[in-house]
Amino acid sequence: MSAYRPIRPLPEQLINQIAAGEVVERPASVVKELVENSLDAGADRIDVDLETGGKRLIRIRDNGQGIPREQLALALSRHATSKIGSLDELERVGSLGFRGEALPSIASVSRLRLTSRVRADEHAWQVETDGDEVPPEPAPAAHPEGTTVEVRDLFFNTPGRRKFLKADRTELGHIQELIRRLALARFDVSIHVRHNDKPGLQVAAARDQDAAEERLARLLGRGFVEQSLRVDVEAAGLALRGWVALPTFSRTTADLQYLVVNGRVVRDRMASHAIRRAYQDVLYKDRYPAYVLYMDVDPGQVDVNVHPAKHEVRFRDGRLIYDFLFRHLRQALESVRPEAPGGAAAPGAPPSSADRELPRSGAAAPPPRASSAPAPRQDGFGFGVREAQALYGATGTPDVREAGMASAGAASNEAEGVDDGAAVEVPGDQGPPLGYALAQIHGVFILAQNADGVVLVDMHAAHERIVYERMKQQLAAQGVSAQPLLVPVSVAVAPAEAELAERHHDAFSRLGFELDRAGPETVLVRQVPALLRNADAGALVADVLADLRDCDDASRLEARLNHVLGTMACHGSVRANRQLTQAEMNALLRDMENTPNSGQCNHGRPTWTRLAMADLDRLFLRGQ
Ligand SMILES: Nc1ncnc2c1ncn2[C@@H]1O[C@H](COP(=O)(O)OP(=O)(O)OP(=O)(O)O)[C@@H](O)[C@H]1O
Ligand SMILES: [Mg+2]
């Protein structure tokens, strides 16, 4: 037993250093706290100067409201804040800060200089500390309205922490990611970064849709902007805006996922699960969706005080948020299907000159609607899902299908003349979005002509999507219709697969399969889904069981059923090299126009692309 040590209050500086352990992990955390303070102070320009990855110097200057002389010492004291004053205010807090901990924590582990000027004053005031307990009296200084915080030699007095700092490049990388997040959260603020006296990220404030997308492209790359849909919905007291990438822009990691809740970039498992589920039908299992989403929730419904670095929040009604995200994002993704010629780019389409005047994101966006109001916070993203759906309503009338079939018949009557591609006239006004089939190329693609130019369709991918969506609909409307086989087919499978068929007998029969185990390694197929009746039943079942073997356990039933459907659609789809008649090709085009999600196949590959006349002209240098 060691000798008894009396209990003593800790010195103030040590208290702050302990708090710094949670608040200040590395230079990027300092940048986060200081920039958040600038945002809370109403700044619309923030300059970030760094040296050696932020280890030697972090200097943040803003043009916010400033701190008056007599409050400078308080700003550096623990548990002192201007942002809340009561529990009630904490529970509805709208600012990023609220603990009154950041500045004293940072000051306790660095050499800090705080210079600030409020509008009413003639000059600025400055305090400097070296991790001391009591900051000295403010001295006069020169500085425009706003605040500069300079943090030098981070962890100079806590060698244990300093040891854990990484190479400059690594620390700088963390800072850049951090600034990217803040820049995404607040489009109304311009941010200018310098590192070792060289300019780094520079983003101007974005006050309209075009500027917002320019900024987005700068922060996340043009590919994301070009291949994403804009979302803009309000319901149940919640608002959701932003961009979700088309499944064709999926990622191998979850690195491009930003969720901003009430102006705060957060990680939330529940929300990311809801978003992932919205993509479930259109994304291959190891791929991750990319998105930048802004959610506005009544501040009283979000608890921001649940994580030491405020990286997480807790929703009081999580179910509501989950359903809201899932439902609206799935709707947005389902709306991706071919639309009228002259609309925005098809997924995977090269940018055409006609498209250049259109918003770059949004596979179905009408001409841009300049948002006149300046964009405070994340407002002003304009056009949204509702409008997109209105647009589809206008083009995707139920009659399209029959009209398409009728003319498909007409086309096939003159099939001989069609083969050279000259005889097909796109009738009347615009014609259907995907036009009419001209030919089949190498048994893999359909070449069609629409009012705008030519369309190429990946037959297999398109058909797979259509079968899948149809099966889902059938399933929802009470079971898949099944087709009994005249003679049951016996399939040799692995014992585990035979067991799977046995165990999930009911689930399979709900999907139209009648599978009976006929031995340790044999399954008898008595019935298959009517939609897949042309497939080789034995091969189909063998494939499905093999596919299901590893996604069997954890996934929930619904997810599993969907997966089975997707798998079956894959296996039953038109195989490459199958010769389709003109009528079949046209029917496929019409089906695509009427099928949700038909812009991409079940694995997120694009199903079709388009070359407008202007693109063709450009290819051949016509009119130049
Ligand atoms: N850049 C700034 N401009 C104007 N006032 C500032 C600035 N930075 C800090 N302050 C003032 O100093 C106070 C203390 O800042 P500090 O970051 O320590 O705490 P906080 O922001 O209130 O809470 P948190 O610890 O959650 O960040 C703030 O409440 C604010 O009034
Ligand atoms: Mg703060």
Describe this structure in words.
The chain is an alpha+beta fold. A hairpin with a 2-residue loop joins strand 9 (228-235) and strand 10 (238-245). The strands form five sheets. An eight-stranded mixed β-sheet has the order 5-4-3-6-2-1-7-8. It is built from 22 helices and 22 strands. It folds into four domains: 12-203, 2-Layer Sandwich (Heat Shock Protein 90), CATH 3.30.565; 209-391, Ribosomal Protein S5, domain 2 (2-Layer Sandwich); 396-462 and 578-619, formyl-coa transferase, domain 3; 479-572, MutL, C-terminal domain, regulatory subdomain (Ribosomal Protein S8, Chain: A, domain 1), CATH 3.30.1370.100. Residues 33, 37-38, 41, 62, 64-67, 75, 81-83, 97-103, 147 line the site of adenosine-5'-triphosphate. Residues 437-580 form the MutL C-terminal dimerisation domain. Keywords: DNA damage, DNA repair. Residues 340-353, 360-377 have a biased composition (Low complexity).
| Structural class computed from helices and strand pairing | alpha+beta
Q: What's the count of strands?
A: 22
The CATH first-level class of the largest domain comes to Alpha Beta
What is the mean predicted local confidence, pLDDT?
79
CATH superfamily of the largest domain: Histidine kinase-like ATPase, C-terminal domain
- Cross-sheet strand order for the largest sheet: 5-4-3-6-2-1-7-8
The CATH architecture assignment of the largest domain turns out to be 2-Layer Sandwich
The hetero compounds bound to this protein are: adenosine-5'-triphosphate, magnesium ion
- Cα separation of the termini: 92 Å
Number of domains: 4
CATH topology of the largest domain: Heat Shock Protein 90
The proportion of residues in beta strands is: 15-25%
- The portion of residues assigned to helices is 25-40%
